[in-house]
């Protein structure tokens, strides 16, 4: 298989080319850690716009930590896969909220600015089920931005169709292939360490 992207930085540079026409003086990028931070950093540098983080975390299946059955945004929005709604417990929601608060404390170096009437670009390194991104969209909508745009190097086709009904979605690849993992499309898709994420954010801010 030929990888589409060398790494997240390269993907961000390519994605910036598609985003340049959506940028104005009131645009801000919000990256979803961890992988989205690297992509967003490349976009922010290429387009010379502000960059911050936004935390949206999946609510995992009780028997499989990697399988999302819901998601929560940092301002409290919760998205639940209706097929698994009976498995969402108050304890799972509480644990997810605690994880979000921990990430904010660890990663955020400055408050998110007032998003009223701003163009907000939500960035991740790839989108599979879209639950975390959907929670992010609906969470950010509460802050009355002028526009929300979702940007990712690769997204599953059915997820693209779902999210694109809510907000514009900009992607380099809309994949109709069986979507086993976002990493299928990257040569280097190592999990970013906390130190790497903090260094990227510090460089930007």
From TrEMBL:
Keyword line: Transferase
Pfam family, one: Pribosyltran
Statement: the UniProt record of this protein carries the keyword Transferase: yes
The organism's place on the tree of life at top rank: Bacteria
CDD domains attached to this UniProt entry: PRTases_typeI
Gene Ontology molecular function, alphabetical: transferase activity
Domain Phosphoribosyltransferase: 11-185
Protein name (record): Phosphoribosyl transferase domain-containing protein
Lineage: Bacteria, Pseudomonadati, Campylobacterota, Desulfurellia, Desulfurellales
